[in-house]
Design brief:
alpha+beta; Aminopeptidase; 4 helices; 26% helix; globular
Amino acid sequence: MKIRPATLADAPALMAIEKDAATAAHWTIGHYRDMFSEKGPPRTVLVLVDENENQKGVHGFLVGRSVGKEWELENVVVAEASRRQGWGARLLHEFLDCARNRAGEAVFLEVRQSNQAARRLYEKSGFEEKGRRKLYHKAPDEDAITYALNLA
């Protein structure tokens, strides 16, 4: 497996993976088109693929964006069959390296309170819990826990 920058051609595979992940942010094809265009803040979209680069071989992805020197982690999803193999951590660390290389000073995120696997990953990666957003997530309604990582 390898990690590479995603392209708009990857969007259908990303949508298929996110559809099967209850805790993922679910976006429309229009959102993905905007991500790969000049609209909105610059985004970093990384994809985890088989070495042969076959789109059917997409096993996970990460989406983050920068606003000045601050970065936000928006979505991390690993396909069910590829979970618990360290791929989420590899995607996250690749993203953090990218933020550091672009003079990022901090990374922020929010995660569903019940998503214990993601919370453990973030905490093991040095993120610190900063607060709670009541009923931030919908379907089902749930609090978000906010995290931050100082890169400076």
